[in-house]
Design a protein that fits this description.
Blueprint: H1 2-7, H2 13-28, H3 35-51, H4 53-60, H5 68-84, H6 89-113, H7 118-137, E1 142-143, H8 151-157, E2 159-160, E3 163-164, H9 165-183, H10 185-195, H11 197-202, H12 207-233, E4 235-236, H13 241-255, H14 266-285, H15 290-324
Antiparallel strand pairs: 1-4, 2-3
Length: 325
């Protein structure tokens, strides 16, 4: 009986949705359940999962980061530009990641030092990154052709025991972040700030240091995601951001249904990314238009946000009741 209760808990709902969606797509398209297609889904979800990893913690503190998609786009453009100018893929990737991480530093300065609202600050930073990406390629993609055989290329397209190396990289990064989130003081402080900033401040938690670190982490992972996308597409894409904006927030807020109900967390974000990849892959096999997947993603985003708000309101109600008593 207790086992059944655990299965129907709200925290398990996203896993049930994934199972049901997979069954439906398997019935409607025989190709979907083939091992090769399922492994491709894992590879497809890995890029977005890495790209939005840092955003999860930003949102969990009650802040917002709208800059991550365009930082990723700029990272892909810088990588492609450097490769076209004779640098190796590895050197180009490292330089692009380092340069794009500086946008996270800029955001942290605007939010922490100058007290900008994070949404406004990241929209401004996003606009800057988007403009620079467009200037680099004059608004057009930058194609590259000499990246095969490089370490990064092999990481993007290689496999270990049939499993995409890119997915294994995503899992490793997420395992590290789960440990940080669950087992370190830093992780505890992230959620303390998100739950009650005043109480966190009175407890001696340095809100400024935490927020600064999180915006930098967000830019770092976005930059890594941009490099990976450059390897996948073999071109820098100045408009890459538009395709990841909705996906990123949908995965993060949907992930708030898992493990920590109402609280964005890295395990939930990974599961949310997998669900979105399954939906896109399945709808593509069925011949549905991209507009249909956008509608579904938008609906899922609304669902995730609603669940987060409901959970927060219940938590506030409990705190208020305890204070009254």
């Amino acid at each position: 009986m207790n086992y059944l209760k655990k299965l129907v808990k709200p925290e398990s709902s996203l896993l049930w949705i994934i199972a049901i969606v997979c069954i439906i797509f398997s019935i409607m398209s025989p190709v979907f359940s083939k091992p090769s297609n399922l492994l491709e889904i894992l590879r497809q979800c890995s890029t977005s999962a890495i790209l939005i990893l840092g955003v999860t913690w930003v949102i969990s503190t009650g802040e917002m980061d709208a800059s991550f998609p365009d930082i990723a786009a700029l990272s892909s453009m810088i990588t492609a530009l450097l490769i076209r100018n004779g640098y190796s893929f590895e050197v180009s990737a490292l330089l692009a990641i380092a340069l794009c991480t500086l946008f996270g530093v800029l955001t942290s300065i605007l939010v922490v030092k100058f007290k900008f609202q994070s949404l406004i600050a990241t929209i401004a930073v996003s606009g800057m990154a988007k403009a620079i990406a467009a200037i680099i390629g004059k608004g057009m993609p930058l194609n590259v052709s000499n990246i095969r055989g490089s370490i990064v290329y092999n990481l993007v397209w290689g496999k270990v025991a049939g499993i995409p190396m890119l997915f294994l990289l995503a899992v490793i990064l997420y395992v590290i972040c789960v440990y940080i989130q669950e087992k370190t003081v830093f992780g505890q402080h992230i959620y303390a700030i998100g739950e009650n900033r005043q109480a966190a401040k009175e407890a001696g938690i340095s809100e400024k240091k935490i927020l600064s670190s999180l915006f930098i982490f967000s830019a770092l992972f976005a930059a890594i995601g941009g490099v990976i996308m450059m390897g996948v597409l073999q071109s820098g894409q100045p408009k890459l951001g538009s395709s990841f904006f909705l996906d990123g927030f949908t995965a993060v807020f949907l992930g708030a249904v898992v493990i920590k109900l109402g609280k964005p967390n890295v395990i939930g974000t990974l599961i949310g990314s997998i669900l979105l990849a399954i939906l896109v892959n399945g709808l593509t096999l069925l011949g549905s238009s991209s507009f249909m997947s956008q509608i579904i993603k938008g609906a899922l985003l609304l669902l995730g946000v609603a669940i987060v708000n409901i959970a927060k309101n219940k938590q506030r109600g409990k705190v208020g009741k305890l204070s009254y008593e």
